[in-house]
Amino acid sequence: MKKFLSLILSFALLLSASMPVFATESNSVSEETINSELLTRGYPQIVLDTMDYSSKLDLYDENVGFMGAVITYYDESTSSFIDIHVEEDGSYISPRGQIPTSDLSLTFTYSRSPMIPGATLDYIKVSYNYNWLKLPFFRWQDPISVSWDSSKFEMVSNSFYKVDMYDGFIENATTGAVSGPYIGQIHSSEYGYANASSSGVTWYADLKGYNGITPTKLYGYGTFKLAPKNTTAAGSTILYGHYVHPKMDFGISVNVVSYGGFSISGGSNYDERGNQKTISW
Description:
Low-confidence stretches: 1-26
Distance between the termini: 72 Å
Order of helices and strands: HHHHEEEEEEEEEEEEEEE
Largest sheet: 8 strands, antiparallel
Number of helices: 4
Number of strands: 15
Shape: globular
Helix content: 10-25%
Structural class: mainly beta
Mean pLDDT: 82
């Protein structure tokens, strides 16, 4: 009897190991509550509309305030990009008078450390969100880089984090039965980056492929903190971002070779977009 129970237990463990693990987000705070609070901290609705629950929760928990953003819309079929710069007061100018409907939105958001009366700037929190509105045909690893002025800022140790997520469903190949939807599934996450220097950092948006769950949405973000080297003076700086979407080549990488300078290696068939934002404090 003991041997029989042992065999049943072993089979159950083996079966559970072969099943997909569905890690979902902990919605301890409603998205409506988060949106309402972030609006009071200066985050415009146009920025919140491009961000997922997880990235907004990160800003909500840290009690940071809005400094500025750049929203980039990308059309994969035409390889075209449109930028919308959002100022700290929430104002922006949309090209051709309306927000485009495209395949991908990239939101480059800057937040200031919690505002305490009389306190100086402690750090700037940088967040880079991607949200594929139309799933891309090519799904590998898209390099993302951010560059800053190393004479003014340095990245805070252990502040970097990235996560790649998806929504989707499972369809039984035999019966056609569909299970799901599975929302907020984590494809990959880590507290480390691909490479970094005194003036920049690079990581990868790891897009879920075609195996297992069929994705209906691909999204994620990377975030880190920049500490000013002079904590008493007011000032301004330019932060640069660079996004690369490989279309055929494998192993494409991006390095920050200097402040605002990006070097791409490992292939030639890709779309890329650089953006920048001047922020003041």
